[in-house]
Amino acid sequence: MKNGLLAIVLFSAFSVWGQQQTKKIIFFQPNQSSVSTVHQHQLDSLVTFIQKNECELTLIGRADSIGSEKLNLYLSGKRAKAVAAYLQSKGVDQLKITTKFLGEANPLFSNSIPKERVKNRCVEIITSCKGNNAGSSITGTSFEDSTKYTNTKFENDTIIYLPNGTQFEIEAETFYPKKIRDIDFNVTEIFSLCDMLSNNTVTRSANGDCLTSAGMLYIKPTYDGVEVQPNKEKYVRIKIPVKNGEVDKSMTLYGGVKNDIGEIVWKNLKSELSYQENGVQYYLFKTDTLYSFNLDKPIGIMCNKDGPKVKVRKYKDAMICQTYPNEKYLAVAEKLKKRKFALDKVKEEKNPVLTVVVQDDAGNPLLAKGVLYDLKYRKWSNSYIIKKKYFKRILRDFSQPMTAKDYMCNYLDN
Predict the structure, then answer these.
(1) Which phi and psi (to 5°) does residue 67 adopt?
(2) Which of 34, 68, 188, 313 has an alpha carbon within 20 to 30 A of 168's alpha carbon?
(3) HSE-up (13 A, CA, CB side) for residue 393
C-alpha cells in the first residue's frame, strides 16, 4: 500500500541558473485525480510560500503502470490539471503554472515493486523562485516556516505529511547530529479493514480485550539502515486524522507489543490524547519513541475463538472475516476442519457481519456477505450454515496472482 508511503512537503531543493528550486509530491489513490482535503492543506502552505517570493511552478502528472498506457497518460493529465486548478483557485497566476503529464513513462519509482509502484500515482511540483528569501527553503521541509530562519541554522522544524492524512511535527535537532531530512521514516498507516487484513493486524489488546480502532501507525525511522529514535527529552507530535465522523473522546492510545506467537497486540499507554480542529479534525499526541501506535477503545468482550461456529457448504477452502457495521474491528475465523470455522466471541447487539471468499474448481472467486444471525442455525452441530446458493461470482483479476485475501480486501469496507 500505499500505506508505507511518505508525502513529504519538501522533497528536495537545489539551485538551477541562479534560481532556487524545490520539489513537492502530491500522491493520489488508484484511478483518482481529485485533490483530497489533506493535500489541499499542503497546497495552501505552498501558496503561502510562493506569494512571498517570485516563483513559477511546473506540475508533472504521473501514473503507475497498472492499466493501459493510453489510460495512464490521460489519468496523469487529469491529476496535473486538478492540482493546477486548485492552485489557481487560491490566487496563483495561471501564467506562472506550466503543466505536463507523462503517464507511466519515466517513473520516479520502480514499477516492478508493488510498494514502490504506488508512489508513481502522483503530481510532482517543481517550484522555481528568485530572490534571497527562496534560498532559505533549502534548510526546511515546511514552506510556511522556511522563511523564518537563515541558512546558518542546523535545520528547521519539520512537518511530514503521510498520504492518508497523518502528520508528524518534528522540532529541529530532534535527531541531532543527524538531520531530519536524512532519516528514512518508514511508516504504514492503517485506517481501513483492508489495511488491517493486508498488514495482518489484529484489534486485540495484550490482555485479550476486543478493540475497535480509529487508526493505527507502524513507524520505523532509520539512518543508513540503522533504526534511530529522538534524542532524550525530544518529542514528536503525531496528528492522526478523524475518518468518517466526529472525534470519539473515548478512544485511548495503545502501543504495539508482540505476543507469544509473534502477532502485534496492543498495550494501553495511558498517554494524554488531545484534539485539534482546523478544517480537518485530528487526534493529537506526542511521543519520544517512534514504533507502533493504535487509537482504540474496548467493545466489552474478550477476543477468543470461542464464539459461534460456521460451516461452509460445498467449498473446501474459504476465508471468513468477522466485522461490525461502521466499526474498524476485524477478526479472521479459525479453520477447525475443511469446512468448519470458529469465530471470535461476538457482540450480538452490534449485528456481526461475515464476509466469505471461496474459489470454485476452475479458480473463479465467489463471495458471500451478510449478517451472521440471518444464517440458518443447526443446533445439533452448533453451527451456522453458509449454503452454496449464497455465493455469487465476482470479477476475476487475471493480470496478477490473486489470493482470497486480495479479493476479500475489495469487499470488507463496502
Answers:
(1) 90, -175
(2) 34
(3) 8
Nearest 5°: phi and psi at 207? -95, 5
Q: How far is CA 154 from CA 180, 228, 327, in A?
A: 10, 19, 45
Closest CA relative to residue 84, chosen from 46, 133, 131:
46
Q: Which cell numbers hold the place of 17?
A: 541558473
What digits encode the pLDDT tens for the residues 10-20?
334 433 334 45
Residue with cell 540503522: 226
Q: What end-to-end distance do the CA atoms of the chain give, in Å?
A: 18
Q: Which candidate, 105, 108, 92, places its Cα nearest to that of 27? A: 108
* Domain 2-158: CATH architecture, name and number where available: 2-Layer Sandwich (3.30)
Question: For the purposes of burial, counting CB atoms within 10 Å of the CB of 65, is it exposed (0-12), middle (13-18) or buried (19 or more)?
Answer: middle
pLDDT at 377 over 60: yes
- Bridge partners for 266 per DSSP: 205, 256
| Per-residue pLDDT reduced to its tens digit, 2-60 | 333 444 333 344 333 344 567 788 888 888 888 887 788 778 878 877 877 778 889 99
CA distance 29 to 121: 7
Q: DSSP letter string over 99-125?
A: EEE-TTSS-SS-TTSHHHHGGGSEEEE
Q: Between vectors from CA 282 to CA 281 and to CA 286, what angle results, nearest 5°?
A: 160
Cα 117 from Cα 125, distance rounded (Å): 19
Give residues with Cβ within 8 angstroms of 207, minimum separation 6: none
Q: Sign of the C-alpha dihedral, residues 51, 53, 54, 56?
A: negative
Give domain limits for the chain: 2-158, 187-301, 304-412
- In terms of average pLDDT, the best of 138-147, 201-210, 258-267, 282-291 is 282-291
- 59-116 pLDDT tens trace: 999 999 887 888 889 999 999 999 999 999 998 888 888 899 999 888 888 887 877 8
Angle 37-51/69-89 helices, nearest 10 degrees?
60
CATH class entry, domain 304-412: mainly beta
How many CA atoms, within 13 angstroms, populate the side-chain half-sphere of residue 290?
Answer: 25
Contact 1, 195 (CB under 8 A): yes
Give the distance between the most distant pair of CA atoms in the chain: 83
Cell for 349? Answer: 447487539
Q: State the amino acid at position 318 in one-letter form.
A: A
